[in-house]
Specification:
Blueprint: H1 10-24, H2 36-44, H3 57-79, E1 84-89, E2 95-101, E3 104-111, H4 122-153
Antiparallel strand pairs: 1-2, 2-3
Helix pairs in contact: 1-3, 1-4, 3-4
Length: 154
Amino acid sequence: MEIKTQTQNFGENFYQNLVKQIRATDAYGSYVKYSDDELAGLKYLKNAGHDTASLKNDQTALNIKMYLQAVCVTLEKLTSQITGLMSESGCDGSVQALIYSGDLIILNKTFGGINGFQYSSVEKLKDSGGKLVEKLVGTMKTKAEKYEAFVASL
């Protein structure tokens, strides 16, 4: 598996895909007036003008799913491998997520509720997503190499 360029800004790529995911849920055009940073702030930043404790569990689960879908889209763009997300929402706002690419499961993790997805700044949001993408790209490379070696040994 090959990454398209040697120098990647995983955080910035992730962030642009996250904003696209948020804008895709805007059926009525109410997000048009917001800049990218303001829009991400509404969903993921602490004290962004709304009471995070009052967010419903369904909205929390949707925010986590958008975050993970942005990770998947970023992985697809970087690796040219089809990547998918399967997720299940819990009643407490947590999300059990499975990210896969072909035969490879590259992430199987439970993401907690609202506290796990509230950041103090946009930079920390970018950094968090970028680190996850970078980790998963490494996992994809490692597992793909092991899988190819196994198949070759048959």
